Amino acid sequence: MIWIKTGLFQALTAQLLFSYLLNAKELSVNTADRSQVIKFYFDHYLPSEDFKNHHEWTGSIIDRNPGKLSTKIHEDVITRVNYFRAMAGLNANIKLSDDLNNKAQEAAFMMAYQNSLSHYPSQDWKYYTEIGANAAKYSNLSLGLNLPYYGPAAVDGQIEDSGENNKELGHRRWILYSKAPLLMGHGSIPLNYIIQQSEPEPEPEPEPEPEPKPEP
Q1: Cα 184 to Cα 18, 49, 169, 203, distances in angstroms
Q2: 8 A C-beta contact, residue 189 and residue 56
Q3: Is 211 helix (H, G, I), strand (E, B) or coil?
Q4: Are the beta carbons of 117 and 143 closer than 8 angstroms?
Q5: Radius of gyration over every alpha carbon of the chain, rounded to an integer in angstroms
Q6: Which of 185, 188, 21 is nearest to 100 (CA)?
Q7: pLDDT at 174
Q8: Threshold 0.85, pTM exceeds
Q9: Are strands 183-190 and 95-96 parallel, antiparallel or unpaired?
Q10: What are phi and psi of 148, to 5 degrees?
Q11: Which residues of 161-192 are buried (b: 16+ CB within 10 A; e: fewer)?
């Protein structure tokens, strides 16, 4: 679980990657050539930074509807995955499957609705489906307290893989696995509310030390 905070406002998001197999067009870059690396960054990393403006989630927490996402946010996510794989010298031809996207969306909705992460959610969760629970077993999961922490930003977080509970770097290793399946699924839920955090109370001013008494 990764929590990221921005200022006084927080929102909850869930991000999930789920994988399988298929062929796709491959990205590549010569990492020994600085100019190529810079161009690759501008061509394949920066364009997906605008993902917050086209998530277009059609679901609803109130109606218990996992919904669907825009094609563009799916493209942003898999482009970010392939960007990191290419920069690591790996094959970067991963694609997304509509079927796996739907399964990943079920799992992401379960995590968001429960406000928790688990690769093995139990049937007593507030929202549970067998499809989502099965997808969660084979997924990278992220849960954040920051509105932009979904889509490509969650891929960045999984590559960073910070935290005491991530010493094995499992999320990063899965994204950068040399024999990773070539078909993946993506699901995410940016919850449509903002949780305002109260400002911390200032620490009290220390009492001034008494002036020393003059010697007689």
Answers
A1: 5, 20, 19, 50
A2: no
A3: coil
A4: yes
A5: 22
A6: 185
A7: 84
A8: no
A9: parallel
A10: -75, 0
A11: beeeeeeeeebbebbbeeebebbbbbbbbbbe
Nearest-10 crossing angle of helices 152-160, 71-87: 30
> CA-CA distance, 54 to 51, in Å (whole number)?
6
Q: CATH topology for 34-193?
A: Pathogenesis-related Protein p14a (3.40.33)
Packing angle, helices 98-114 and 130-137, rounded to 10: 100
List 14's β-bridge partners, or say none. Answer: 143, 189
Q: Over the chain, what is the mean pLDDT?
A: 77
Cβ–Cβ < 8 Å for 27, 44: yes
Q: Return the biggest CA–CA distance within the chain.
A: 93
The per-residue pLDDT for range 108-166, each reduced to its tens digit, is 999 888 888 889 999 999 999 999 999 998 888 887 665 566 788 888 888 887 767 66
Cβ(194)–Cβ(11) under 8 Å? yes
CA separation for the pair 191, 211 (Å, rounded): 57
Instruction: Kindly provide the residue ranges of all beta strands, DSSP E only, lying in the chain, ordered along the sequence.
Output: 9-10, 12-20, 95-96, 139-145, 183-190, 195-196
In degrees, to the nearest 5, what angle opens at C-alpha 94 toward C-alphas 25 and 108?
145
End-to-end C-alpha distance for the chain, whole angstroms: 66
